[in-house]
Amino acid sequence: AKGNRIFLFYGDMGAGKTTLIKSLCAYLGITEPVTSPTFAIVNEYQGKKAHAYHFDFYRLKNQTEALDMGYEEYFYSDAWCFIEWPEKIPSLLPEHFTKIEIIVTGTDS
């Protein structure tokens, strides 16, 4: 992931995608609350040394909605981008990214 700031998070509902993103933001020095942007589609976080966008595309009906929100300005900025439900926008994903897949293996994991 060296030099890459686009992270795609795959996993079932409740698998822990937002929880992992909270930890990544804390590692980047972001101290404000990190919450799932399910209804807002994107949340912006500003830390002392890092700027991040957190997307949740679960509610999108089609890729046009991402186009309408100007996704390119976010994805191709210098900020970190954490994207939940990237499978909703397959043809809009950038060429270079880091894929993270979370698989729940049992009730205690």
Primary descriptors:
109 residues; globular
Characterization of the model:
With 109 residues, the chain is an alpha/beta fold. Helix content is 20%, strand content 23%. It is built from 3 helices and 5 strands; from the N terminus they run E-H-E-E-H-H-E-E. A hairpin with a 4-residue loop joins strand 2 (42-46) and strand 3. The longest helix has 11 residues, at 17-27. The chain is globular and about 40 Å long.
Topology (SSEs and partners):
Blueprint: E1 6-10, H1 17-27, E2 42-46, E3 51-56, H2 63-68, H3 71-75, E4 80-84, E5 98-101
Parallel strand pairs: 1-4, 1-5, 3-4
Antiparallel strand pairs: 2-3
Largest sheet: 5 strands, mixed
Q: Taking Cα atoms only, what radius of gyration do you get, to the nearest Å?
A: 13 Å
Strand order of the largest sheet: 2-3-4-1-5
**Structural shape:** globular
Q: How many individual β-strands?
A: 5
Which percent bin holds the helix content?
10-25%
What is the overall pLDDT average? 92
Strand content: 15-25%
* Tally of contiguous helical segments: 3
Q: Return the structural class.
A: alpha/beta
- Name the helix and strand elements from N-terminus to C-terminus, one letter apiece: EHEEHHEE
